[in-house]
Each structure stands twice: as structure tokens, then as C-alpha cells.
Amino acid sequence: MSSIKHLFEPRSIAVVGASKDPKKIGYKVVSNLLASGYQGTVYPINPSGGDVLGLKAYASIEDINDAIDVVCTTIPAKFVFDSVKACADRGVKYNLIITSGFSEVGNTEEEQRIADYGLSHGMRIVGPNIFGVYSAESAMDATFGPGGILPGSVAIVTQSGALGLAMIGKTKVENIGLSTIVSVGNKCDVDEADLLGYLTSQKRTKVILMYIEGIKNGPRFIEAVKQATRKKPVVVIKSGRSERGAVAAASHTGSLAGSDEIVDAILKQCGVLRAESIQDAFNWAKYLANSPPPTSDQAVIITNGGGIGVMATDACEQYQIDLYDDGKVLKKLFEPVTPSFGSTKNPIDITGGAAGAEYDAALSVSLSHKAIGASIALYCETATFLAADLERVLENTYRNYMEKGKPILFATVGGEDIENAIVKLNRKNVPVFGDVYEAVSCLGKLYWYHRYLKYHDEKYEETKIDIKPITAICEGAIAQDRYFLLANEAQQVMACAGIPVPQSAVAHNIPEAVDRADTIGYPVVMKVVSKDIIHKSDAGGVALNLENKEEVIDAYQAIMQNCKAYNPEATIEGVEIAEMLKRDVETIIGARRDATFGPIIMFGLGGIYVEVMKDVAFRALPLSRREIMSMIKQTRSYPLLLGVRGEEQKDMESVISCIIKLGSLLQRCPLISDIEINPLMVYEQGLGAKAVDVRILLSKDERRSS
Ligand code: ACO
Fold this sequence. Notes:
By secondary structure, the protein is an alpha/beta fold. It is built from 25 helices and 30 strands. The protein is flat, with a radius of gyration of 32 Å. Acetyl coenzyme *A binds at residues 16-17, 19-21, 24-26, 45-48, 74-76, 79, 83, 98-101, 129-131, 161-162, 165, 183. The site of acetyl coenzyme *A has 28 residues, from α2, α3 and α5.
């Protein structure tokens, strides 16, 4: 297959459907290619020949006596396959199919036919249903967009064509230079993962911004995006809540995993900055493309107004920016540049009388102090500081900060003069915002990304599990056409995986029940074992806290009677006798194969309120120890594991170990599709954790390979 470099740096481009008619897309693409200054050769193709925009038009691709790297297809859908065939046979490397009318309107077979032909003949396809590709590397605007794209360092990859075209316009307004913009459309072949590969290593691109509606191959996407975020920030706008996650609602892990929650968790896990709005995405991309990393973990706010300072403090908390708070140092540093009626506590209030010189002095102090990693400068319009001075001071300050490699940004609030100053400064790429939260969010994302780079860990935790006996248990169930394991089978699987379970045994009559209970030790619990009775409590098939032999005998008889009355057809395999566990913190751990992302794991607050509390966190496997801890800490009930009201801390190591073992079990045993432990009872430190109830679902044939 051809290197993806040929797509972005082609030596020649042919436009199939190039037209003389300025209203047609085939005209616009040729005209953009010429206007953008593309240095390679452009070959218009049109059955009528002649010329298009001064270039000789060829009747077909076969007539061109040159190697063609890229073809841009702009002819109606019904002609596309024949054209694709001719291009692939002619050795074209990439075909950008702009044409609509394929899988997006249900014409999936034709799209597949095109993809198959291209792939089997070494031609990659971008699209169909796209607006094209722009690449600053080769000054190539092979789109039918508005033209005049500013070259720069932000790469945009978009699934939506219309939104992508709109973004081109917006980048010009916001003065954002692009290294590339690619529309991936229906993604019949080239997808985000392919493009990330190129953009990650391309020097020109400093930030990658993606608009994604659906992800086709989750594990490939995860790998590509992880590689990318190690090198540069990736901002993603992910829209469209798919229904797929909800389909597999056979377990809590399935039903609690609203697909968007999984997407969100996995994007964070991969170091992606997820934006809810285009404005945020643009702000972050532009700021991160131009800003050096913070020089320490803490920032300062410098303001001329108390109110706006408080707002910025709130915003810093929201966007996880630590504010430098050593009062003594702040006083020493800022007292000389702050009026006596101001404040040297962070936010530093240089008061309403502050003009250019005062801002300059205060911001120079924070620039030169090592412990301050970044500055946020706020300005509320006053009569003492003229807008013209403001522009000069902000621009100079910004340049000073950039020279010394420390991040800064500004938020200014005021009337028309201030608004105009913001526009002018933005044109010079000085990061000034008319809204405090917008400004602070940019710095928050810069901090978040650099924390990710510093702390993310790719030492994945796995444990060896002998899957032979586990496979035998699963195959035994499948041989009976049963795609779930019985409780005792699930307990055996847990034991094989090294996950502690309560002592238990199955009894088939009263003497056996008494004998098992004596061996385990009182108190015990008893539960019916029957594949026909799923909800054991509803059937009266559970008895708790049995203290002696007599109670075991009574319970055995009662369970049998109740279950026969509940479902006379049920086959009862026996009664499980298990140790009665002490209660402590009830957690839940789930592991399942997500239709999009592959193996994922869930941790949260367990017990009967799981569905109500929905206090769970998700991650994609494999996981580092740091990620496991971050998943546990993300839950609201994490303090329960730390111990509340004088309780001892709980056995966190056992929880981590169970998560690692469950993850390894899912990854190693393709016959298992879902595993859920609820509750995993977690005891005090040193006393471990026990998997009280375990549900295991098996894969149907077609899903086993996933
Ligand atoms: N080889 C070369 N040229 C051909 C061929 C061929 N096999 N067949 C036809 N042509 C020529 C035509 O003669 C015509 O040239 P002319 O103007 O000299 O006569 C030219 O190709 C275009 O063909 P038309 O039939 O005029 O088609 P038209 O330009 O109206 O539409 C298009 C083609 C634009 C591809 C249309 O089918 C389409 O899909 N439009 C939607 C595109 C789109 O929106 N894509 C998604 C973008 S993202 C977003 O949503 C904004």
C-alpha cells in the first residue's frame, strides 16, 4: 500500500469531472488547486476534452502520460465505480471521492464495491461524501471550500463535510493557520487512525483537532490516538450518542455503559481533550498550538477588579488549575507593585486605578518567578487605562512571555473599544478573550495535557491465568446451548483466576447440606442452583445467616418447596452452601467486550443500588496501575474505601488486584463476553476482598473473535 505521505504531498493530481462551469464542484476544485499555489501537476479530466481554467483537459485517465498520485472524483455516484476502476488499474495511489449518494443514503453495497476494488488494487480511498483535502505541506487545496486557507500548524480531521467547510471559514475569522484539513466522510477505507499516523509525525502540525461522529474500529483508533497524544495535543469534538452500547444490556456493565460515557472515559484515558463546542475546540487548539508548557504546577491571576478575579478563581477550580498560594512569597513579590488598598493574595488585585505600567510591573514579577508556572491577566475596562495602551501592553507582555517560554493569557471585559482591541490582538495571535471562563479553560487544558504527558503510564498490569480449566467450564456450558455460567461454575472460574470467593459447596440432599455446612463453619447461606431460576430471591431460593444444623435442614426443605412452587418445570441441580460473609464496602467490577472499543472494564459502588446510584467509572483495557487508581478515585464513593468516621482504610490492594485479574481473564478467554462481580466485598486493609456474586456471560460464535 502507498505511504500516506502521497496523499498530503502528491506530485500530481487529476480531477475527474473537472468542468468549465464555475457553479460545478469539479470547477471549484481545479480553481482552488491553482489558487492555493500547488506546485505539482494538475490534470483536469472531462469526456469533452478542451481546457479547464487554462489547463488541457483529458478525456480519460488512460490518456494521461504521467504517474498520478491523487485523483479527486467529482462525478455523479452512478459513474464513480467505473472511474475508480480505471484509476486503480492506472496505478493511482489515493482517490478522494467527493461524490455523495453512498452508504449515507443506504447505498452501502456500491460503496463496499468501490472500497473493495480500490483496496485489492493498491488504491486507497478517502470518503466518499467528502469536501476534499487541504495540505499546507504542498500548498494543495483539493477541496471545493471557500479557498484562501491560512497555512499554519493546526490539523483538522472531520467526519462532517458541511461542518468542515464551515470550519475553514471560521479558521480565517479566528486567524487559525491550518497544516491540513481532511474530510473523511463515510470512511469506506481511510479513517482517522490512518490520518493520525501521518499527522503525529508531521513536524508542521502542532495540534490535531478532530470532529468525530462514529468510530468504526475502536482498538485501532485508541492505539493511533495514544501515539498521537504522546507527541502533540489532540482536541476531539465527538457528537452522536450511538445506541450500540445499550444493546448489550445483559449485565450492569452493559446497561450502565451509556456509549457516550465510555467514549468520554476512553478519550480521557488516551490523553485527548474533548470539547463540547466548536468554539472551545478552536480556542484550545489555537492556544495549545502557540503556547509553551507551564513552567510549574501553579498559576497566578492578576486583576484590576475583585469580581472578575473571583470568577477566574472559580474557573480555575473548574478547569483544575492550581493557584500559587504561598502568602509570604506572594506578599514579598507583589507588594512593591500593588497599592496598599489592593491585595497580594492570589488573585493579585492591582485595583481599578491600574494602567499599562502597573500591569507591566505585576506581570513582569510573575514572569520572572520560578514557582509561578503561568499567568492569567484580567482587565475590566476603566477610564485610567486606554484601549490603545491596552493593545500595546498586552502584545508586549505576550511577546516577553513567549520569549521566556512561560504561558500567559488575558481576559478583558468592556465596551466597543475593548471588543475592537480583542479582535486586533487576536489577529496577531495574542490570546485575549472577552470571557473569563473561555480564557481559563484554555490554560486548564494546557495544564491537563502536560500533566497527562508527565504522569501517564504505559506499563500495563496483567496477570498469568491458566485458561485451560476456564475454557473447559465455558465449553461445557456452550455444549448445553447455555451462554451463561451457573453460580458454582462462575465461582470456579474466579478461583482459577485467583479472585477470592467465599467458601462454598453444592449439596444434593439434606445430609450433604449438613455435612458441607459443618465443614465450612457457621453461619452459612444457602442458595438454590438451577439454570431455570435466575432471580433466586424472588423464588424463595435463598436463606441467610443459618446458625446451626437444624436451621440448615429447615432451610433446605423450604428452598426446595418454594422453588418447585415458583417454577414446577425447573430443574434443580442442588443447593449451594456458602460461608456467610460479614458486610463491608460493597463494590462492583465488570469487564466486557464493547462493540466499538473492545475489552473495557468498569469499577464502582456495588450492591443493590448500582443502577440507582450509577457511581461507576470505565476504562479500556489494558490498564496501567495509575489508570486503575484513577478509575477508582473517579467514583464518588471512593472515600468509603479510605474509611469514614474513624474506620480503617479498606484493602485497596485487593481491589486493584481483582481489577487486574478480571481484565486479564477477559482478555485471555475469548469465550467470555461479560463478567460481573457484584458485590466485591472489600474489607479492612490486610483482610482482602471477596467476590460474593459473580455473573459470567459467554460469547455467541459470531462475537468470539472480537
Ligand atoms: N469522467 C470525467 N468527467 C465526467 C465523467 C467521467 N466519467 N462523467 C461525467 N463527467 C463530467 C460531466 O460531463 C461534467 O462536466 P461538464 O460540466 O463539462 O458537463 C462533470 O463531470 C460533472 O458532472 P455532472 O453530471 O455535471 O455532475 P455535477 O457536477 O452536477 O455533480 C457531484 C457531481 C458534485 C459529484 C454530485 O454528484 C454530488 O455528489 N454532489 C454532492 C457533493 C457533496 O456534497 N459531497 C460531500 C461534501 S461535504 C458536505 O456535506 C458539504
